[in-house]
Amino acid sequence: MSAAALHLLQQRLHESNYLLLDGALATALEARGFDLADPLWSARVLLEAPQAIGQLHLDYLQAGADIITTSSYQASFEGFARRGLDRQQAAGLMQLSVDLALQARQRFMAEQPETVTAPLVAASVGPYGAMLADGSEYRGDYGLSVAQLMDFHRPRLAVLAASGADLLACETIPCPQEAEALARLLQQEFPATPAWISFSCRDAQHVWQGERLADCMAMLAAVPQVVALGVNCSDPRWVAALLQQAASVTDKPLLAYPNSGEQWDAERKCWHGQASPARFAAQARRWHQAGARLIGGCCRTGPAYIAALRAALDGAA
Fold first, then answer.
1. CATH class of the domain whose range is 3-316
2. Is the dihedral of CA 239, 244, 248, 254 positive or negative?
3. What residues does Zn(2+) bind to (predicted)?
4. Domain coordinates of the chain in residue numbers?
5. Running along the chain, 317 residues long, what does each successive block of 10 average in pLDDT?
6. Does 233 belong to an annotated binding site?
7. Model-level pTM greater than 0.90?
């Protein structure tokens, strides 16, 4: 990434009332028949069927997404090492996750010659807890210092910052210590790399570890490399209130890409509740009214949800 890329997202937002993110990768791949009961989660498909990831990226672009996010959320040197891959192989798979998104964008642009503005590619940076594959990203409380979290994230950020992606998506962050670690790396070691930082929240006020979302965001408000702040992988019922908190402490563009609204049963390992693209899109209008400029979906959302968001948000404009 270059210094010129730092303001690319701001330029797009200046031109548009909102930008549409994509939806889930892992649960959307599961819906297409892939077994992701694996510590690598969606990164497993990078090893076994990368073309399926590329097709899903294309499907999201065709549904209306302005930004697609790579399948690198669960990709880490530590996780790939447990699968027997060395550092060179792991870095190659992280690069592949970006290449698949870039290729999907290229194909989309070739199929849509009237499209003037190319969609953006965000390289996903999942939290430390995602590498543990034990649900820690929904607890925090890692017991690690900010310096130790910087050591974990540094090598992956180095690969993804040089990958050709337009920006980083640091997402599902459950605690302020991890957000601080990422922000320090961006400022000190990757100053030309823009990123958004998005927290996962347990209710309408707090991130999963227990701190107030507003306090977490206030800490990041002056970091120039952080080009947007928001919430993801959270219950959509809480999003409007969370965005109102965020807007009180930062003037950075706000993100909202929650789960579908269904509830995960960790004991039975299944989802409960009902959700639909239409209901999700109706809720998204409230997120936009609450200040969200980048809007999409997380777990259990798919291309149909993104198409519904496009229709609803364009109709509300």
1. alpha beta
2. positive
3. 233, 298-299
4. 3-316
5. 62 92 92 82 85 97 97 92 93 97 97 87 96 86 96 98 97 97 98 96 97 97 96 96 97 96 70 87 97 97 97 83
6. yes
7. yes
